[in-house]
Write a structure and sequence with these properties.
The protein is 5% helix and 47% strand. It is mostly beta strands. The two termini are 35 Å apart.
Length: 165
């Protein structure tokens, strides 16, 4: 499952919700027939109506008919299945695909594991933790990230002077 939004509050009387869009691809919402919400377990909701306003999406679900029912979703995250993700170019990856990958330099020496990804306007940063639990911040730029191989769970980087501290 992949998070694409977070319910902020009910909207109106007919069970519509207002949600913050927390995906880089708001178009995920445009053609969805189902969204999942985790409440002890993942529950599927059928999307009846979608509309956008700035960084928000307003959704109506078949299963939610009142403001009180919509209120029960406040603060919950909205998920989609991996099959509903927008296809990416061959050199693009979703954050969840990179988490947990092993990072090596060009000489195939182990550096660490991708533990987190920070997002900035200029570029993303991989937070790579080495065997001594030291965190290294690796910019996601073509000069540094040389190869991402999802099948072998491996990222190969060019270690520029000062990159690893």
């Amino acid at each position: 499952m992949f998070i694409i939004g977070k319910v902020l509050k009910p909207q109106g009387l007919k069970g519509e919700i207002k949600a913050e869009i927390i995906t880089s691809f708001p178009e995920h919402f445009e053609h969805l027939s189902d969204i999942y919400i985790e409440q002890n377990e993942f529950k599927k909701f059928t999307v009846e109506e979608t509309r956008f306003s700035k960084n928000f999406v307003f959704l109506r679900f078949k299963e939610i008919q009142s403001r009180n029912e919509a209120e029960s979703l406040r603060g919950e995250y909205l998920y989609i299945q991996d099959k509903d993700l927008v296809p990416l170019k061959s050199d693009e990856f979703y954050h969840h695909q990179l988490l947990g990958l092993n990072v090596y330099d060009e000489d195939d020496s182990f550096i660490g594991v991708v533990k987190d990804i920070e997002t900035y306007p200029e570029n993303d940063i991989l937070v790579v933790t080495d065997e001594n639990k030291n965190a290294h911040l690796i910019p996601v730029i073509k000069d540094i990230i040389k190869r991402v191989d999802l099948e072998s769970q491996k990222v190969t980087i060019h270690v520029m002077e000062g990159l690893l501290g």
